[in-house]
Amino acid sequence: MSKCVFRIRKKDFAKIIKNQCGYTSKYDSTSILSGINIKVADNVLTTVSTDGNRLLETKTKLNDCVGEFSPVTFVGEYLRKIKFIKGINISRFIDDILEITLTNKMMDITDVCNKFTYSIPIISGKYPKYKKVIPKTKKNSFVVGINKYFLEDLKYLSVGESTPYIRIQLNERNPLAAIKTISKIGDETECTTALMPARLS
């Protein structure tokens, strides 16, 4: 469909976009990897961003949605600069609502309470087939959990001053396969990341 309209809480959308922007390429604002890929299907909003080394896919259930929308990439730099997303405490929005209209040329983000609309253009180009990067999870696969605070502490344990990498022991059969993580934000939003390891030796 060429048009889709849905409503979402402002604080939820702001959190999704702030997370996705962290995974976009910062080197070239015109590159397809600097944008956020968005689609809507079966009342689920899917946002994807990648800088080529890591990837974040976020799926959010929508309760107020009309139509579906095939994947289109929107300019990430413009999304980052929206006032209610950039550098402020999003928790204060409480239940403010956004009405978002997606077309093949533009994304219009309307603040229903303040009656103001932000228009975000698309980036031309073909987005990578990112689904091929995310490891498939089998029903009987072995799953482990790592405390997120432990991961934050790892930043102090890099191999050396000249590189930010940390050594991780992986399966010998495919040591450079993507590392997959899944996390949930409440009952409606699920995030999947694919982290690409780098060969150090």
Describe this structure in words.
The chain has a domain at 3-131: DNA Polymerase III, Chain A, domain 2 (Roll). The protein has helices spanning 10-21, 76-80, 148-153, and strands at residues 3-9, 36-41, 44-50, 54-61, 64-66, 69-74, 97-103, 106-111, 116-121, 179-185, 189-195. It has 201 residues and is mostly beta strands. It contains three helices and eleven strands; from the N terminus they run βαβββββαβββαββ. The strands form two sheets. The protein has a six-stranded antiparallel β-sheet, covered by helices on one side. It has a five-stranded antiparallel β-sheet with strand order 5-1-7-8-9. The protein is globular.
Q: What does the radius of gyration come to?
A: 18 Å
> Major beta sheet, specifics?
6 strands, antiparallel
CATH superfamily grouping of one domain: DNA Polymerase III, subunit A, domain 2
Low-confidence stretches: none
SSE string: EHEEEEEHEEEHEE
Gross CATH architecture of one domain: Roll
Q: Which strand order does the major sheet show?
A: 6-2-3-4-11-10
Distance between the termini: 48 Å
Number of strands: 11
List keywords for this structure.
201 residues; 11% helix; DNA Polymerase III, Chain A, domain 2; mainly beta; 3 helices; globular
Summarize the structure.
With 201 residues, this protein is mostly beta strands. It is 11% helix and 35% strand.
Task: Give me the secondary-structure topology.
Elements: E1 3-9, H1 10-21, E2 36-41, E3 44-50, E4 54-61, E5 64-66, E6 69-74, H2 76-80, E7 97-103, E8 106-111, E9 116-121, H3 148-153, E10 179-185, E11 189-195
Antiparallel strand pairs: 1-5, 1-7, 2-3, 2-6, 3-4, 4-11, 7-8, 8-9, 10-11
